[in-house]
Model the fold of this input.
Amino acid sequence: MVEKVNIPIIEEDEGMHNYANSSLVFDGVSEFEKKDVGKNNSLELDNVGSKESFMAIFAKESKVDFPVKRFLEAKRGISTISLLEKSKNVDFGTSQRTTSSTNSTHLEKSPQKIKLFASGKSTAANVTVRKMRCNMPPKSRMLIHEMNHLLERRRVSSRAMKPRWSSKLDMEILAARSEIEHAPTVTHDKELYAPLFRNHSMFKRSYELMERTLKVYIYMEGNKPIFHQPILKGLYASEGWFMKLMEENKQFVVKDPAKAHLFYMPFSSRMLEFSVYVRNSHNRTNLRQYLKEYTDKISAKYRYFNRTGGADHFLVACHDWAPYETRHHMEYCIKALCNSDVTQGFKIGRDVSLPETMIRSVRNPQRDLGGKPPQQRTVLAFFAGNMHGYLRSILLKHWKDKDPDMKIFGPMPHGVANKMNYIQHMKNSKYCICPKGYEVNSPRVVEAMFYECVPVIISDNFVPPFFEVLNWDAFSLILAEKDIPNLKQILLSVPEEKYLKLQLGVRRVQKHFLWHTKPLKYDLFHMTLHSIWYNRVFQINVRK
Done:
């Protein structure tokens, strides 16, 4: 007789799916170059042979007690049921398993049951498969025009906590705000392309005041590799490049916290996930607890976090889980996040949408930059990518192999030749389709600008990068997810004159989305820091 047990199986989160695309793991590559670990206190990780070798070497190099045993068990392919049988938290007489409250909210209400045979046994299991939130459409939607209205309202009134005591530095920020609001009109600007900005004159004045005024204190607390050791390659490189360039900076950084307008908490959300998360546990509570303990530590050691409730503190994080990890204990901080989803706690007017940049070469982050001029772009629209989330399958259903003008594909095969084919498609296309994946953000938005292709963003609830200062209508199309069936009609309805203006806007905005080993004026490092400064200026609440 076959014994039946109910076991809830939860689909993997994006962090797990992203292992194959991460700068940390490259399956099938020959070896891991140890020289890249710790070099200039950063991680390049061009060649990683296996997770096992990486974990062993990385744990040794960084003197961190990684959960190597659990990691290796998962690597060797021990079945889910076998692992669950080892766990003391599983009651096989019930259909529920202990999970964090947040993960529970991501599950579908009506689970689907399938049969699964345990490895090496004749036991069949009624397995409850529950979809993750990232594989289902959102329950609420906010479109771009609603975000614009919300930003205007947030600018009128501050939502930040009043400081517990006054500071002359608050007065300096308040004075900067007045100067920005009354900025003189700029008529001729050789450095900036005015149509790119919501208010060109205000941005120009704010940037000048940031250069002249802003001072940042960087907390030295926190151990590597989670703190002070940036990853410079792959999907999560934005947080690493900012960390590296901020910690090397001489202009803005001060050693005396009493002189700082802003306080930077330099952790890597990618390394937090990689080193603390127990793979396949589907429980991220320990990641959030890790950051809570860090916040408690700096709050006890310094008086600055408690003065404002964290309103003058900021973090820069690109992993999808960062909104959850920083909830509650960092709730009032300025969060620069790649996952800028308004339904996941992103606050327009306070938080900063961080561009997700796919860095393929650390030594030359601008490799393959540029594309064909508009008249030589023969493809109307292009997309290729993995079927992450619910939206991309809808895109392919309507447009894959349906129209020769619409080059819409699924995942392209691995290999250098196919990677170059992907890049050439972007360089040859008028429009590059940027649908959401598991989360609202996608590296394709910046990739499109990198290859001078007009990005078509299809991701409800996504706040575009540097939303507080950039006018995205000048260099992109932002469509609602419901518009996918009419995608070609919408693109063809754009007059040629408007398309040429959009493409010009892409070429002009490109410099604001590039990393440089030595930062340049108005580049991605400075744009990120400026948006953090700008939002603090307009959200500050002073004690009179």
User: Anything to note?
Assistant: Residues 1-40, 45-124 have pLDDT under 50 and may be disordered. DSSP finds 19 helices and 14 strands in the chain.
